Amino acid sequence: MKQLQLLTHANFDVMGKKFIFIGVSLVAMAISLFFLATRGLNYGIDFSGGTEVRVKFLSDPAVERIRKGLEALNLGDVNIQRIGKVEERELLVRLGQKSGVKSEGGLIGAGDVSERVLSALRPERDRQLAASGKINLNEASAGSLETWLVSRVEEGRKSGRISGSAALDPRAASEALVAARDSHGGIFHTLDAIRGVPGVAGEIYALLQEGAFLGEMAPRSVEFVGPSAGKELIRKATWAVIGSNIGILIYIWVRFRFIWGVAGVLALVHDVVIALGALAFTQKEFSLTVVAALLTIVGYSINDTVVVFDRIRENLRIHRTKDYEMVVNASINQTFSRTILTQFTVMLCATTLYLYGGDRLDALSFTLLVGFLSGAYSSIFVASPILVLHQRWWQSRRKKRA
Amino acid sequence: MPLKWRWAIIAALTLLSVFLCYPLREKIKLGLDLRGGIHLVMEVKTDDAIKAATDLDIETLRTELAKKGIAPEKIEHAGVGRIVASGVDSAKTGEFRDLVSAMFSAYDLSARGGGAFELRLKPAQARAIRDTSVRQALETIRNRIDKFGVAEPVIQQIGFAGGGEEKILVQLPGIQNTERVKELIGSPAYLEWKMVSIPPGYKPEDFQRICPTTQAQLLSLFGGALPSDTELFLGEHQKAGEETVYWPCKKASPITGKDLKDARRGAGRIGEAVVDFRLTPDAGQRFEELTRANEGQLLAILLDRKVISAPRINAVIRDSGVIEGSFNVETAEDLAIKLRSGALPAGMELLEERTVGPSLGSDSIRQGIVASLLGAILVIFFMLLYYRLAGVNANLALVLNILLLLGALSYFRATLTLPGIAGIALTIGMAVDANVLIFERIREELRLGRTVKSAVSGGFEKAFSTIIDSNLTTLIAAVFLFAYGSGPVRGFAVTLCIGILANLFTAIFVSRAIFDWYLGLRGRVEHLSI
Known about the structure:
The complex is a heterodimer. By secondary structure, chain A is an alpha/beta fold. Chain A has helices spanning 18-38, 45-48, 63-73, 106-121, 124-131, 142-158, 170-183, 202-211, 229-255, 258-282, 288-318, 324-356, 362-381, 383-401; strands at 42-43, 50-57, 78-83, 90-95, 135-136, 212-213, 217-225, 285-286. In chain A, β3 and β4 (90-95) form a beta hairpin. Chain B is α+β, with helices and mostly antiparallel strands. In chain B, strands 11-10-16-15-9-12 form a six-stranded mixed sheet. Chain B has a four-stranded antiparallel sheet with strand order 7-8-2-18. The interface between A and B is large, with 94 and 94 residues.
């Protein structure tokens, strides 16, 4: 059977077109910087502070009503977006942090923000039903459900509706209900759905039928970040990216040469700038996990650059007399298949993550995809040409001196 | 190393990993973002504690000065840790200085001219007060959460101790009721009993009926100005739309939360939720005297400087009583927990709150597993397609790689977070990289006409330094990521680091062993499926 080969005998004149390749990179970087300057990054609440709530709805959410209600809170910019499939009826609501909105002291003052956001999302009907003493099966925690059931059972026993001998376990029933709700994606669509839940039968089922209702919404996550956190995190993230670059520079300097380290790091800066540019262009949320993606790009993109460098070093040892540029060109061609193959397998995984990993990993996997693509390009077409350009400059300087 | 030994090492590590990570569900600790729960970061407002300390010192200073016949015009709080006394009689400044330096050594005294002096809390003292209040807050919160009952809570101080970091991290897995928990751990729960000042010409029971009253109305009842021993306090639990209510109460608090021996949720006359309390013997005596002297009057109960109820004293109360208020079962239970655990020494500010419901977490886990498995299948399929039989080798190494990763995660009790799952998915993609480098090198050697055996050993040897260099540079970035990140991001860095190390081992050691075994099996091999 014939071996499957990819670019094994590649013989591209990469060095001959090095100015084109570097030019493409410079243009891509310029475009990225342009988007960064004009659109800027869409900082998530990790960095900008604010409240982010993810809510599922029973029926199609009235986005405009919700927006108006949230704007009335006067907390900051309101951003509502649908996530997942349409039939999931899930919204991601983000409220910015207005500077000057200060907590009133104590947890309650500051914590109220997320509570206020939730109650602004809640439709009037839910509020009224809850105020009338009914329990919201789509929002109640196991603890409050249990408390409610216990008091109802007590009442029932007093009034003789529930016989004193009936063995009821409100705790087990509440826990089973909440577990069932979680396995239903966090929301019950009909009251019938609770019929089969273990422990929910007889008296307890009757109590729930009578006194429970299905709230219009089910909060799936609530996040609040105070205004003070952001700047510190951005500073730390910047230092982590710079620090890892310096670490890599030093490693390559020790193992190869200083200028090779510079070339490798320039390629990394290129990748990070392009990934940031893509984030600014798509306005995907810039969160802590995106910073993690950027650092992964730094770590992974250098991987392939080092593979090429290693080959150049090896070839330089063997062919001492040959032209530097030719050696570099040959090395790139010899490692071509490797670079493509290793990037390809990682891209396969990053792509499945982007497509199937869910929206919470969307920005992370998107950043990785862009960064890996850029990394594959820069390992071949940016880092090595820089070596050649440096070599040329150095030689011409030496000639002048001589 | 003989092949036998190598197999032994590989088998031992495989078994160890399986042992460590089986059953997966129990051994891998899930982060809050996957498991669901509450994550809170709070800052202890230690300025409050310092203010409380200086307020106390102002009172002491005033009485001590009065004993010596010194009466400054004003002694007041002037910013954090600063007290200003003005209008000290010029003849008595010497005495004033002596008294302050003798009794208030925690302060630096400086003259501001014109008979004014400033007492400034020494930095070391201020630091000590701040540290104590953070420690107390931590203790109190721990107490409250223990009494509330949460499995595996995390309650710790974060940041550098002594470096001005006064943050407390609380993580409660599996809890969803954020509002209740925030209230439970964040409210100071400072309880006081105060006598209500009844305006002249009113009977207590009549006043009780017309109160709540607005601030302006109240002042007019008192003839325009409050008595000097009375202050206005807000009433608690205003429903939306209702007017703010004020209660005129005496400044002194004869009984406070510190005098409590116990507090439990109880039921009132009509079955409503209340809090039953018991006082210490000493406080019980004071309470008895107080209620005897003031029978028929109103006694306000204040929680965090807000009046929760102001019942009439109908009988002499000794050491046990009831706190009424607009409680439900949960809030009464929580107040009882807070009272039993003691008050927080200072206010808390919420810096970060993250609540993830378990349904979202399990959705994410499912999606993460689907994406990782799909990625793995694609990679495995591709390796088989491209490298044929050698692809089997790479895929074995890949599977072992994941196994080692899971084993290591279990062993280090590392927390698997959502980004951590992404890290595992990426590790799958990177795991075959080293194999690709080696296989391409072997192909190259074969093309040069080497025998299969020398091509294989040449391939491994020549690819070795490349693999080390490229993986170590990746590791550098992963280590920086670990140092940078907290929580979920750190989980990602951990999987990445372990993945890289496992990758080095499987590619260099395991794949080599498989090749050597395969070649040894065949004797003379003419052709290698690679």
